[in-house]
Each structure stands twice: as C-alpha cells, then as structure tokens.
Design goal:
The protein has seven helices and two strands, in the order ααααββααα. With 174 residues, it is mainly alpha-helical. It has a two-stranded antiparallel sheet. β1 and β2 form a beta hairpin.
Length: 174
Amino acid sequence: MTDPLPYISPMNDDRPPSRAATGMDEASSLIDAAFRLERAVTRIGNTRLRPWNMTLSSYTALRILAGQPQLSLAQLSRRCYARPQTMTRIVTQLENRGFVARGAHPESERALSLKVTEAGLAALEQMGAEVLKISDTLNATLGLEDIVAADRNLRRAALVVENELREMKRPDEG
C-alpha cells in the first residue's frame, strides 16, 4: 500500500494567515470532509464508468431500480437525491440504451413504473465490479467499526439538518 495522501485543510491555501479565512470549527471541518469525499467518490466513479459511457448518477439509478423494481420516476428521484428533471434525463438515457423499461404502475393509474431490463442487469453486473472498488478502498482504509460509526453519525446529522431545512420552509403559524 502506498503512503496515504495528506489531508489538505481548506484553510491552507498558501496565503499568509492574516488573509486566510479563520474560525473553522470541528463541525465545519466535518462538512468540508464530507463534501470532499462526495466529490472524490463522484470523480473516481465517473472515471471508472467511462468505458460504459455512464456516470455514477446513472449507475446509482440503475442499481436502485434493480433492487426495487416498479418504482415511479418520482420515487426513484427521491432515492437518488436528484431533482425530478435530472432523473427524467437519466432515465431517458437508460431507456434509450435498453437498460430500463417503462410500464404501467401497479398502484397508480397516472404513474409509470420503471424496471431494469436483462441488458441493464448484465451491464450493472459488469460495472459493479469496477465501481465497488471504491468500497474496497474505504474498507481497507477505515475498517468496519469506523465505517459503521461514520455511517450512523452522518445519517443522524443529515436527518437533523434536513429537519432544520423543513422548519425553515414552514410558514409562521400565527
């Protein structure tokens, strides 16, 4: 294994300390680290999926549909944390490639149901081996206990922040 890359603080931008931003607390550092990890995972995922002309977002949508068939576009959009317009574009591309088929939704006359095709399942299996190398890297670096604790804490923090956002959007009750 090669030496790990050093963590580069967002506060270290090679400017003299008097011009550098100050006041980053531990929570701000965590937010920075989470954002940095998300960006790194997206970049390496997109790079590893390039031979299939796919993005990590498209792969994720396909993987979710394979595990939960009969989702509507709105349901898939929520599970992928994507805007409906973005998910429409992704699903259209997957459909054009023969990876996804639309059909009648079993629970709603108005909604369409999405399903991964045999070609989509085959492509997913091929891509999965490459994409899951990211998990192998994290498992080797952090270990199971640290990953489980980080997952639990980040999900709890996300719920708190999401609830705060919902509260901000509610009109004042008079």
